Amino acid sequence: MKLFDSHCHLDDRIYNSDIQEVVKRMHDAGVAAAMIVGTTRRRSIKAVSLAKSLPGLYASVGIHPHDAKDCNEATLETLKKLAENSRVRAWGEIGLDFNRMFSPRDIQEKWLVRQLEIASELDLPVIFHERDSNGRLIEILKTYFKKGKNGVIHCFSGNNTELKQYLDLGLYIGITGTVTIKVRGADLRKLVPSIPVERILVETDAPYLTPAPEKNHSRRNEPAFVRTVLLKLAKIREEDPEHLSAKVWDNTCRLYGIET
Fold first, then answer.
1. What is the pLDDT of residue 185?
2. Low-confidence ranges of the chain (pLDDT < 50)
3. What does the pLDDT look like over 117-152, one tens digit per residue?
């Protein structure tokens, strides 16, 4: 199988001491590519640096809703400059998070809309984060996310109504290791069969959300483990893993504008 981890954070300092080994294990597991997703100015810079220096890695740039309180136009200009690099294939991770509220709602919404404008100007797909926004993200997307633009709902954990609305907006749906967790992933497993095969992506969100059974021996997730997510998806959907992996690979490359 040829796999693409569509969302990870290899820029996290937890990988500083063994990033080369992590990337080697990724390739050994058949994970030919991974998207390192930016969340702040500093981390976007590091993500791009890693993508430029290690094989099979790409990067996105953006300001996460947790960090919206620190965003400004100067920061966004820096990210726009970074986006000129050919390894940068998306804008994000951006969105709304009304769970932890590390940034005020109005500030999150202000910089989400501004970043949507920039992504549109640069013709880059968007990686979205959503948590407990109670439909507000969908409202904003219906107003500011232009038809014909590409994007993905990272780490989808919504209900059937939200899933249908995301699909109606033309978005891809990112599935993480949560789908492998017995209790936490129960609702997600019920929805997975209803996602059109041409809209599914797999991701690790590494170093977070380690799938089972890897979580039994490793607290730190890594791109190699996306194989487990794909195999679980195939089992739930009663599809051949090789066939599904090929579809998901094509989906990811189509979203990120990567020719293979």
1. 97
2. none
3. 999 999 999 999 999 999 999 999 999 997 778 999
Domain at 245, CATH number:
3.20.20.140
* CA–CA separation, 246 and 242 (whole Å): 6
Q: How far is CA 189 from CA 37, 96, 106, 178, 228, in A?
A: 25, 24, 33, 9, 14
- Which pair of tokens denotes residue 215? 């979580």
DSSP 101-156: -SS-HHHHHHHHHHHHHHHHHHT--EEEEEES-TTHHHHHHHHHS-TT--EEETT-
pLDDT-above-70 percentage for the chain:
100
Coil, strand or helix at 234: helix
Spatial contact of 201 and 248, defined as CB atoms under 8 Å apart: yes
Range of the domain at 232: 3-256
- pLDDT for position 246: 98
The number of domains in the chain is 1
Residue 260: the pLDDT is 76
How far is it, in rounded angstroms, from Cα 18 to Cα 125? 30
Q: pLDDT by residue (tens digit) across 6-17?
A: 999 999 999 999
Strands 126-131 and 151-153: parallel
Token pair of 236 as six digits: 């739930």
As beta bridge partners, residue 8 has: 36
Q: Phi then psi for 82, rounded to 5 degrees?
A: -60, -35
Nearest alpha carbon to residue 180 among 228, 123, 117: 228
